[in-house]
Fold this sequence. Notes:
Blueprint: H1 8-20, H2 24-30, E1 42-45, E2 53-56, H3 59-68, E3 73-74, H4 76-87, H5 96-106, H6 112-115, H7 119-132, E4 139-140, H8 141-158, H9 170-189, H10 199-220, H11 224-230, H12 238-245, H13 249-278, H14 282-296, H15 304-308, H16 311-323, E5 330-334, E6 338-344, E7 350-354, E8 359-362, H17 364-367, H18 415-432, E9 435-438, E10 447-450, E11 452-455, E12 460-464, H19 467-470
Parallel strand pairs: 2-8
Antiparallel strand pairs: 1-2, 3-5, 4-12, 5-8, 6-7, 9-12, 10-11
Helix pairs in contact: 1-9, 4-9, 7-8, 7-18, 8-13, 9-10, 10-13, 13-16, 13-18
Amino acid sequence: MPNNIFSSVYFILESAKAQNENRLLELFNSVFQYATKACPNCVEDNPWGTLRAFTTREPDHIKAVLTGNFADYGKGPTFHDLWKPFLGDSIFTTDGKQWSESRALIRPMFIRDRISDLEIFDRKVQTMIDLLGDSGEPVDLMDLFYRMTLDVTTEFLLGKGINSLENPQAQFVQAFADVQRIQMMLTLIGPAHHLYPRGTYNRGIKIIDGFVLPFVHSALALPVEELEKRKSEKSFTFLHALASYTRDPQVIRDQVVSVLLAGRDTTAATLSWAFYELSNYPEIYAKLRTEILNRVGPIRCPTYEDLKNMPYLCYTINETLRLYPAVPYNIRTALADTTLPTGGGPNGDLPITVLKGDVVLYSTLAMQRRADLYPPTSETFADPGVFSPERWEQWTPKAWHYVPFNGGPRICIGQNFALAEIGFTIVRILQRYQRLEYVGKWEEQFHKAEIVGTPGKGVHVRLFLPEKQKE
């Protein structure tokens, strides 16, 4: 059986400190020093003094939580209540019928016919590239990626882009970041969340609502009859679907904020990590650029099929998501008495009993960096801690060893949209720029987890045109 190791006060203080110092992965992995030989990758503790929690990086456990015993695990009432001010009763905070209805509403927006139309991507990426310029001046790619994905998400899902690339939405962006940072802290400290000051958090929620509610009221201003007529048209958006489903502005607001979080932050973070890594490996950048130019040339807009048929591009994205899954930490609550399939008994080959109300903390970030889940390091297979798209040429991860979008019924509904946007953006930038250089000390970068894991120092680079384009 897993070992019980923590006192509630110790856990709360260490969690708060680790979050402030961007050491959550270190803290998460540190608990396994107390694990048993029979169960080396799962530890049972009592972190908040009032409930049991299982901290795990075991693929079979994650599989059970997300699919095998899916009905037994959910967000739970405590998580829902804690996150309600931010994400309300949305797809990310609910279980059962509410969750199923939310997912059914969102799914039609991500069918292939909609995400394979890349026209929105092209307009927004071209606007961003214009801001990158051609002089090799330093630029923070992460800032631009977050603005671009905000523009794409608002136009694709809400029907109207806000043009933050041209007019940075500084107040909203800061509020969104503040609320996520504090929300992560409130979740980490559990029952002690009542002691945490909420002034910045509450102000941030008001700013987010001020940004979102005009979209909501605009959709609700359309008569139901008009919405029904638009259902077969390309202009029918996620917002229209919500307004057709309910006339409750709070319900619509909750879903809109959730898709903004999922559509903007996860994609921008993945792009940021990709270019951070590419800036340190000029040979990988050159190899990727060669594949792109051979497939689409220096100018042609890539199609959805182009993106699917560039293997090294897919390897590069996969490798980025392996090292930096967008949502690095997750939590589930047992909704009924259930089990985790391995780790119990003297030999670890029996199930672990999980009681209703117990919590399972899991990290795809930690699991996907476990060296023992990979082949031995060799001349042809890089150390798992190293960015190496080439590993995907000869290696396929075992089931549940690589789950950057989660899995099972709650698998990310927008993953194909995100992969298309990521791939398209990489292609367009590498078509134009021959190389890039990191500005500053590459090794001083750190992983900042505020729901989504981002580069803590931004991604400051210089981009250089081919010599012929300079002339």
